[in-house]
Write a structure and sequence with these properties.
Length: 162
């Protein structure tokens, strides 16, 4: 049999994701619930956000493996509704001081310089919620802090009519 050809003709594409299929996926969360998450999720859904940055220490504290290309996740909004499915396309771990401008721009938050991107991220990472999540009330980042640069693509918009 020819690859890509089933017994009754061309192989069909996998069925689109629906909310039920998405519930079987791990969560791909952006920020903590609230206005920032809502803005980031909106940027994912409109296609302007195709990258994100995480802290290696956050993965370590949570005992979670680093993401890998091909990983898929369901994106919740601040209310916990699954609104999208994304797939990781690239993962790099770099020191914070080496984050490139292209990555910062592709985060879809309107940053035009790495300095502005970093200031916004430092405010988040030094915030009370992140420090509590890391169980370190004095947590800070510097140029040597390891960060996870992820690129992803939107596979499905799960909103009604999406």
């Amino acid at each position: 049999m020819t690859p890509g050809i089933g017994p009754h003709g061309p192989a069909s594409a996998p069925p689109p994701f629906d909310a039920r299929a998405a519930r079987a996926l791990p969560l791909f969360e952006f920020a903590f619930p609230g206005p920032l998450r809502d803005r980031l999720v909106a940027a994912v859904l409109d296609g302007s956000k195709t990258s994100t940055t995480g802290l290696v220490p956050d993965y370590e504290v949570g005992g979670e493996p680093l993401p890998r290309p091909g990983d898929r996740g369901a994106v919740p909004d601040s209310a916990g509704r699954l609104v999208a499915v994304v797939e990781v396309t690239e993962v790099r771990v770099v020191p914070l001081g080496e984050v490139p401008l292209a990555h910062a721009v592709d985060e879809g938050e309107g940053y035009t310089t790495v300095a502005a991107w970093r200031a916004g991220h430092e405010a988040y990472w030094h915030g009370e919620q992140m420090r509590a999540a890391l169980d370190d009330p004095l947590f800070t980042v510097d140029d040597t802090t390891s960060v996870v640069l992820e690129r992803f693509r939107l596979l499905a918009d799960l909103r009604p009519g999406g």
